[in-house]
Design brief:
With about 250 residues, the chain is α+β, with helices and mostly antiparallel strands. About 45% of the residues lie in helices and about 20% in strands. It has seven helices and nine strands. The longest helix is centred in the N-terminal third of the chain and has 31 residues.
């Protein structure tokens, strides 16, 4: 029996639509589209899974509402199977009797005493109120390669006097597809409190998921929020002179 993802891929192939064409039309990265067709939903940003699937369905000529209904049924079936397996594991575990020898019991008791001693030290240590500073460079380790590309793009255009500087400031989890001057393309998953700066000579085109969670500024001028929390904005273009086209 075909899975939900296998059905989607088969329906796309029957319509002779390339996945790359779906990526161009939806502005969803190939990585996420491939994840949808392979059933690897764990790597998709949870906030946007349903939006991505809906856009995918539209791009290949399926009914988005019916596709989402099938996806929900798939999720329920997976959860039911997971719950059933967990219940089986608990039943097996409860049927096992653990017998400890006298030596093992003494060892466990000694370990408990050591743990209590360590916890007591930590609780009453004079350093318990010390301030810990966490440095967050804005991107998770999995995005280190993208960060390097961002830095390279910044360095490449920073010296040009007619370039404009775009700053994206995430106040909530946000997905952004950014195209600079119809050339460089970035697919960003930004967590709250992160910023990214980009330079361009003509325009910045964006598709934004969770528009209310992103603050945008151009050359120091900050725009008001461009949409409500959870809203998706497509093909938003900020021109070099600061005008916005939708």
């Amino acid at each position: 029996m075909e899975t939900f993802s296998e059905q989607l891929r088969k329906q796309r192939e029957e319509r002779k639509i390339r996945l790359s064409d779906v990526a161009v039309q939806t502005r969803i990265s190939m990585k996420f589209l491939e994840a949808i067709e392979s059933g690897n939903f764990e790597i998709l940003p949870e906030t946007y899974i349903r939006a991505f699937i809906r856009d995918y369905a539209k791009a290949i000529g399926l009914d988005p509402d019916e596709t989402i209904k099938r996806f929900d049924q798939h999720v329920e079936a997976v959860k039911a199977a997971s719950d059933e397996k967990a219940e089986e594991d608990r039943t097996k575990s409860s049927g096992r009797q653990i017998n400890l020898s006298t030596t093992q019991k003494i060892g466990l008791g000694a370990a408990g005493i050591v743990i209590l001693a360590v916890l007591s030290y930590l609780a009453f240590s004079p350093e318990k109120n010390a301030t810990v500073t966490r440095i967050d460079y804005g991107y998770e380790n999995t995005q280190a390669a993208n960060q390097q590309r961002f830095d390279s793009a910044y360095a490449a255009t920073k010296m040009e006097p007619d370039s404009s500087r775009l700053v994206l400031d995430a106040v909530d989890s946000v997905w952004v597809n950014l195209v600079i001057d119809d050339g460089r393309t970035y697919d960003l998953l930004m967590k709250p409190g992160t910023k990214a700066a980009f330079w361009g000579k003509k325009k910045f085109n964006m598709t934004i998921g969770n528009a209310g969670g992103l603050l945008i500024s151009l050359n120091g001028h900050q725009y008001p929020p461009l949409g409500k929390s959870g809203a998706v904005i497509r093909d938003l273009t900020i021109m070099k002179d600061g005008t916005i086209r939708k």
